[in-house]
Amino acid sequence: MRSATSPALLIIMLTLAACDTGGLSPSSDDPFAPGIDHSKEAIDGLVVGDRLMDAGEYELALKAYIRAAGEHGMTPDVLISLGSANLALGRLGQAETFLRRALEQDEARPDALNNLGVILLEKGETAEAVQIFRKAYALDNGDSDMIRDNLRLALAKLENPSYDVYQANEYKLVRRGRSSYLIRQTP
């Protein structure tokens, strides 16, 4: 004896078969983003964060560094990266905390010392900033122009507290010729 539902079931199955793209691979006209390929290894969060920092995407970089902290733990590299991202976002207190924690683990890091000096200078703690910049410059063997310039600015600010670090460094780009540019200090 045949069931009365078999023609209805057959129609439903044929309708569903007509909607199928065929096979288990996604169709080329799928409007959705592809899924995650779990067979490949993920790119390190520190690398992704560094690329995002270079692109000026500081909030996304911070998220990538947090992911890196989950992968690597709170290593000095991760702490310095978290501090740098927070510094770029203007979160001086959080940045200082991360950088000081990194320096507790590895005190011979000129990059962490430089960033900490920038924070201290921004907070008005010029004397400590000068000490930090001197240590960073010594550890770096004087190779970094950025650390040298920061030390120079901190020393100028220490000698003359009314010295405006930002006013002294206002530069504008002036076009010369076809494609070269000359940087001149504004009056």
Keywords:
Serine Threonine Protein Phosphatase 5, Tetratricopeptide repeat, 187 residues, two-stranded antiparallel ribbon, mainly alpha, disordered C terminus, 8 helices, rod-shaped, single chain
Sequence-ordered SSE layout with sheet pairings:
Layout: H1 6-19, H2 45-54, H3 58-72, H4 76-88, H5 92-105, H6 110-123, H7 126-139, H8 145-159, E1 171-176, E2 180-185
Antiparallel strand pairs: 1-2
Helix pairs in contact: 2-3, 2-4, 3-4, 4-5, 4-6, 5-6, 6-7, 7-8
Could you give a quick summary of the protein structure above?
By secondary structure, the chain is mainly alpha-helical. The chain contains eight helices and two strands, in the order ααααααααββ. The chain has a single domain, classed as Serine Threonine Protein Phosphatase 5, Tetratricopeptide repeat (Alpha Horseshoe), CATH 1.25.40.10.
Describe the protein in words.
By secondary structure, the chain is mainly alpha-helical. The protein has a single domain (43-185), classed as Serine Threonine Protein Phosphatase 5, Tetratricopeptide repeat (Alpha Horseshoe), CATH 1.25.40. Helix content is 58%, strand content 6%. It contains 8 helices and 2 strands; from the N terminus they run H-H-H-H-H-H-H-H-E-E. It has helices spanning 6-19, 45-54, 58-72, 76-88, 92-105, 110-123, 126-139, 145-159; strands at 171-176, 180-185. Strands 1-2 form a two-stranded antiparallel sheet. A hairpin with a 3-residue loop joins strand 1 (171-176) and strand 2 (180-185). The longest helix has 15 residues, at 58-72. The radius of gyration is 28 Å and the shape is rod-shaped. Residues 167-187 have low confidence and may be disordered.
